[in-house]
């Protein structure tokens, strides 16, 4: 939720400019005799691969582009994946991908390459079956060497004349065939994988390849794919999906490819069932499940005009102080259900319907909580870790572990806004204290260990959002800090079922009109004031990339991500409907982005926000679910000082008149007026969130 202390965009520009100057200064003046060397290039391509499921995974590719010919002022690198890999996102170049074909073009700071100069670029991708390296690269349409070996063009000057057919001899007809790579693939239940379908040679006209599936009916593929003379050799990507089913076994199917005049091919598909894991827990607790409807929140939602449209949506219950565990009795406005009462009601809802039911609880009461802000400070002091363990976590575990609740799937969202603060905000004294005394790391580890031991509890650790740790200086260190906590206090990574991003925040799920690879008049959107050199522009791309990084740091390959979409819809009349046509990168981004906050660092009761995607399971690769963890209508913090006995302070970032600080670029906060303390009901905000919902409410 909070915005990090980090290197400013302006300083990064200076740093990059300085780095470019050093490279140029280091070049040796070339003699006139070689001023007109032929175009040439050499490519070094390496990957770091990881496996996320049997037969599939991701990789990070690092490419060094070396110019061995005349000096150039810009470049365009092209290559094709040989085995159905897919491109996800890249850096240090403007990247585009179409099927197997990938193009990277230079940025303003790395386009000029003198003879012998090089630049490094990279990207992330996904693979199924295997991940062989591309065999041919071109730079500005000139074929490059790869490790000193230049691919020989077919029929080119190096071909021996004796191998060429004489004018009086017709070449023998070559067998034509369909090729599927890889030839076998594993697909997670509720997910999808891609394969490449191509022809052995380019046809003279379009060829329709029929795809016939046999076997497990939950596995599906398109019935056909059309290959054209221009894409047949490179091939096209075909998605193979596996629907959620009720069985607990891995399914198998075969996809047979055929076309008139071609030798056919077949694909073996294995569905990886997600209903039961070795630990006895399901792989995705949200799959095929209903969500617990909190009756207290539901009643408040229904009390606002039009609120009955969402009052039956599942939201999380926040256990944000010790008293919240027992709750308070009575019918007063301050009365609230405790943890056991919520679980009893969840059990009633479970028995009243059919299928699994998920109940979500936010574990949120670390000592020295929310060290970089005031609105959601907690009741425990910086040195009260023993109380956190004995008076907070232990009672929660005792209640959740009762056998009568075993039929429920209980999701525990672990301590938002804690561990990322130990990466980005150590200049804040309280954060430095929590880092040095180990309170956050030990507290999270203890919670994971106690709750993870319960067979029907699924722990998801909060991992901030793209506008906080999307910069490379924060991205990796945050993953390491999360790993440190996951193995503290006797815990192991097996107690971590996944992670959640955007908790109680407003970052757009997907920016539909630009990506991080978009350039405007030759300038990358990363250079805009809004993006500010971040590597991500929205939550989904960040969550998927961060999941991959977490796996590389040692978390289990089947971890899933949650994204809080309760308030990131950004609909209403002011939502952009198309990309801007401006040639100014700042104007383009500001007119194109659906996230309409004044600054990406603003987090409190944001004006103009709307409800986002309704909760649903397995919406995208690596994402277990979209969830509403922050119940819409519950305040982020008070607009002015309101004395209370919950330890919640007044944070000026919740004051609509405050002109900000260095963390939000000294901008207005964009907060709504007349807000109550954090967690209290804010009906005016709820009404605005409904009005600006996207997808719109019906």
General description of the model:
This protein has 698 residues and is α/β, with parallel strands linked by helices. It has three domains: 9-16 and 36-146, Immunoglobulin-like, CATH 2.60.40; 175-272, Immunoglobulins (Immunoglobulin-like); 290-512 and 536-575 and 609-638, TIM Barrel. 20% of the residues lie in helices and 24% in strands. The chain is built from 13 helices and 30 strands. Strands 20, 21, 22, 23, 24, 25, 28, 29 and 30 form a nine-stranded mixed beta sheet that branches. Strands 4-7-2-1-10 form a five-stranded mixed beta sheet, with helices on one face. Helix 5 packs parallel to helix 8 (439-452) and helix 8 crosses helix 10 (472-486). It starts with 8 loop residues before the first helix and ends in a 7-residue tail after the last helix. The model is unreliable at 1-37 and 148-174 (pLDDT under 50).
Quick gist of this model?
The protein has 698 residues and is of the alpha/beta class.
How are the elements arranged and paired?
Layout: H1 9-25, E1 41-53, E2 56-67, E3 76-80, E4 86-91, E5 94-98, E6 101-105, E7 118-128, E8 137-139, E9 142-143, E10 145-146, E11 178-181, E12 184-188, E13 192-199, E14 207-215, E15 219-220, E16 224-227, E17 236-242, E18 252-258, E19 265-272, E20 290-291, H2 295-303, E21 317-319, H3 323-326, H4 339-352, E22 357-363, H5 385-400, E23 409-414, H6 421-424, H7 429-437, H8 439-452, E24 457-462, H9 466-469, H10 472-486, E25 498-501, E26 519-520, E27 523-524, H11 539-552, E28 560-564, H12 585-592, E29 616-620, E30 623-627, H13 683-691
Parallel strand pairs: 1-10, 12-19, 20-22, 21-22, 22-23, 23-24, 24-25, 25-28, 28-30
Antiparallel strand pairs: 1-2, 2-7, 3-6, 3-8, 4-7, 5-6, 8-9, 11-13, 13-17, 14-16, 14-18, 15-17, 18-19, 26-27, 29-30
């Amino acid at each position: 939720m909070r915005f990090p202390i980090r290197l400013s965009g302006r300083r990064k520009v200076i740093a990059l400019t300085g780095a470019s100057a050093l490279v140029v200064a280091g070049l040796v003046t070339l003699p006139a005799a070689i001023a007109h060397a032929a175009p040439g290039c050499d490519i070094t391509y390496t990957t770091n691969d990881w496996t996320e499921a049997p037969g599939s995974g991701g990789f990070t590719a690092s490419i060094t582009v070396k110019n061995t010919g005349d000096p150039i002022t810009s470049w365009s690198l092209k290559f094709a994946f040989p085995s159905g890999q897919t491109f996800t996102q890249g850096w240090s170049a403007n990247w585009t991908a179409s099927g197997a074909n990938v193009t990277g073009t230079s940025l303003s700071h790395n386009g000029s390459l003198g003879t012998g100069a090089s630049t490094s670029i990279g990207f992330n991708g996904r693979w199924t079956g295997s991940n062989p390296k591309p065999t041919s690269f071109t730079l500005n349409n000139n074929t490059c060497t790869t490790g000193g070996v230049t691919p020989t063009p077919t029929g080119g000057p190096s071909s021996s004349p004796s191998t060429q057919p004489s004018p009086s001899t017709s070449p023998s007809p070559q067998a034509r065939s369909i090729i599927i790579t890889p030839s076998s693939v594993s697909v997670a239940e509720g997910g999808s994988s891609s394969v490449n379908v191509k022809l052995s040679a380019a046809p003279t006209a379009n060829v329709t390849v029929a795809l016939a599936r046999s076997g497990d009916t939950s596995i599906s593929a398109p019935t056909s794919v059309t290959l054209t003379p221009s894409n047949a050799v490179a091939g096209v990507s075909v998605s193979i999906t596996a629907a959620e089913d009720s069985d607990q076994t891995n399914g198998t199917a075969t996809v047979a490819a055929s076309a008139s005049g071609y030798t056919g091919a077949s694909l073996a598909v294995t569905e990886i069932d997600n209903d039961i894991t070795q630990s006895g827990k399901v792989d995705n607790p949200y799959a095929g499940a209903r969500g617990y409807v909190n009756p207290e929140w539901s009643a408040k939602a229904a009390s606002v005009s039009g609120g009955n449209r969402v009052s039956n949506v599942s939201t999380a219950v926040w256990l944000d102080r010790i008293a919240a565990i027992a709750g308070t009795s009575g019918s007063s406005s301050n009365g609230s259900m405790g943890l056991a009462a919520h679980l009893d009601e969840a059990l009633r809802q479970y028995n009243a319907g059919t299928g699994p039911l998920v109940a979500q609880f936010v574990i949120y009461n670390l000592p020295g909580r929310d060290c970089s802000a005031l609105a959601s400070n907690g009741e425990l002091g910086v040195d009260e870790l023993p109380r956190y363990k004995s008076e907070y976590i232990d009672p929660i575990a005792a209640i959740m572990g009762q056998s009568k609740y075993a039929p429920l799937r209980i999701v525990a969202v672990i301590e938002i806004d804690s561990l990322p603060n130990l990466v980005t905000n150590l200049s804040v004294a309280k954060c430095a204290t929590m880092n040095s005394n180990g309170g956050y790391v030990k507290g999270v580890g203890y919670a994971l260990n106690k709750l993870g031991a319960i067979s029907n509890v699924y722990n998801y650790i909060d991992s901030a959002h793209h506008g906080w740790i999307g910069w490379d200086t924060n991205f990796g260190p945050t993953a390491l800090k999360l790993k440190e906590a996951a193995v503290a206090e006797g815990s192991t990574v097996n107690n971590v079922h996944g992670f959640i991003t955007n908790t109680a925040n407003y970052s757009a799920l997907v920016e539909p009109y630009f990506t991080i690879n978009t350039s405007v008049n030759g300038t990358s959107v990363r250079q805009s004031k809004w993006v500010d050199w971040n590597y991500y522009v929205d939550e989904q791309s960040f969550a998927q990339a961060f999941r991959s990084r977490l796996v590389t740091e040692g978390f289990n390959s089947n971890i899933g991500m949650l994204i809080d979409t309760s308030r990131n819809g950004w609909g209403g009349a002011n939502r952009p409907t198309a990309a801007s046509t401006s040639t100014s990168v700042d104007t383009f981004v500001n007119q194109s982005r659906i996230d309409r906050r004044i600054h990406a660092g603003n987090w409190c009761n944001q004006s103009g926000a709307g409800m986002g995607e309704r909760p649903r399971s397995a919406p995208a690769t690596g994402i277990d679910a979209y969830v509403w963890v922050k119940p819409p209508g519950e305040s982020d913090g008070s607009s002015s000082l309101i004395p209370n006995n919950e330890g919640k302070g007044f944070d000026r970032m919740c004051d609509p008149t405050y002109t900000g600080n260095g963390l939000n670029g000294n901008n207005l906060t964009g907060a709504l007026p007349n807000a109550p303390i954090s967690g209290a009901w804010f009906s005016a905000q709820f009404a605005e969130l409904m009005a600006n919902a996207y997808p719109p409410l019906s």
